[in-house]
Amino acid sequence: MTITAADLSQFTYNPIFVETGTHYGGGVKRAESVGFAEIHSAEVLEKQYEYCKERFRGVDHVHLYFGDSATMLIDMLAQIKVPATIMLDAHCGGVADIAHDNVAATEYNPLPIMAELSVLANDPIKTHTIIIDDRRLFTKEDETAWHHVTEQDIYDALDAINPEYQIHYLNAAPASCLTIDDRVSDIIVAIPPGVKW
Ligand SMILES: C[S@@+](CC[C@H](N)C(=O)[O-])C[C@H]1O[C@@H](n2cnc3c(N)ncnc32)[C@H](O)[C@@H]1O
What we know:
Elements: H1 5-8, E1 16-20, H2 26-33, E2 38-43, H3 46-55, E3 62-66, H4 69-78, E4 85-88, H5 95-101, H6 113-122, E5 129-132, H7 151-161, E6 166-170, H8 180-183, E7 187-191
Helix pairs in contact: 4-6, 6-7
The structure holds S-adenosylmethionine.
């Protein structure tokens, strides 16, 4: 569902935070609160993007992008010359999100994670810290359409970026829609070699 601020604060050894899936800005706010110096976040739904533009108006170190996350990730990474902490959290919130913004699911990729990981594989920096949310949904056939991707696909893609990544797991933050079982190890973290964690 999402990472706790306490857990996110462990990744501020990189000064820059990058997020796919801005939604209503909860992740951006959390990244600010734990002290990232620079924050970049991309959202494909216009209503959510516009909401966040207003929410973070005048906050110079927050940079928001409107468009498909894999494409926006290329734009974000083009400006980043040092290893960053990258949270991959873009996925369809379900029919409610789509109906809410009057956007047809076919107009964007509702599960861009593999495309995002391909972008990261082509980035010259191979030591970003990569955080992937909602592990419990891989291979589940529900409206969020994660059934296209297996957990092994994720590990293979991380291995293609850097075979020396150490894989760790974090529990998701408490949320009313999650049981304790759902929360356990729901977040995958790929830590680059050389980082003591
Ligand atoms: C789980 S929410 C993100 C939550 C947010 N990171 C937070 O911590 O509050 C997923 C978001 O990803 C967006 N999304 C889905 N597919 C996307 C895509 N292809 N590109 C960009 N954003 C996308 C959805 O519109 C939704 O706002």
